[in-house]
Design a protein that fits this description.
By secondary structure, this protein is mainly α. It is 73% helix and 0% strand.
Length: 167
């Protein structure tokens, strides 16, 4: 199971790289074509915008799993271990609720826009809003995992020692 999860997140990282490369190629190629040949790639702006949105949500899921988002834990560190664990579980529950609302709203947007074509490519706008569904579902699963892990006595997340931060 661990290899499957690691493979999934590796796949997400590769998809993020593909989105980034797509953005660079489309935007740079369009700039070169405009200035050098007075031409342009019509779908360039739309495809790069879609790639940017998907890249953002892919990165958010990867960072959520790696606990890479910013946090302020000054007050948390002065609590006893049971208080710290309780606050972390509470924060995961609150983030689960927010991610669930995000998933629900994104799903509604997908349903509303499923048959709406995008202006240039004609692709379904449901695919665009699908990035939110992907994020919401992935985030909910990560939060549930973290809640169970913390409730079962898993290791508390600790900041990196100062020596690692200054390298």
């Amino acid at each position: 199971m661990h290899k499957l999860i690691e493979g999934y997140f590796t796949l997400l990282k590769v998809a993020g790289i593909i989105c980034l490369v797509t953005m660079v190629v489309m935007v740079f190629g369009n700039v070169v074509l405009r200035y050098a040949f007075n031409e342009s790639i019509l779908v360039s702006e739309e495809v790069s915008r879609w790639a940017f949105v998907w890249l953002t949500f892919l990165g958010a899921v990867i960072l959520l799993r790696e606990r890479g988002h910013m946090n302020v834990d000054l007050a948390l560190r002065v609590l006893p271990q049971w208080g710290e664990r309780g606050c972390l579980i509470l924060s995961q529950l609150l983030m689960l609720a927010c991610s669930g609302l995000f998933l629900w709203g994104s799903w509604q947007q997908v349903q509303i826009n499923l048959n709406v074509p995008s202006p240039v490519t004609g692709w379904s706008m449901g695919l665009f809003y699908g990035a939110g569904v992907f994020f919401g579902l992935s985030a909910c699963l990560i939060h549930l995992y973290e809640i169970v892990r913390l409730a079962m006595g898993g290791e508390l997340p600790r900041p990196a020692p100062d020596a690692e931060l200054h390298q």
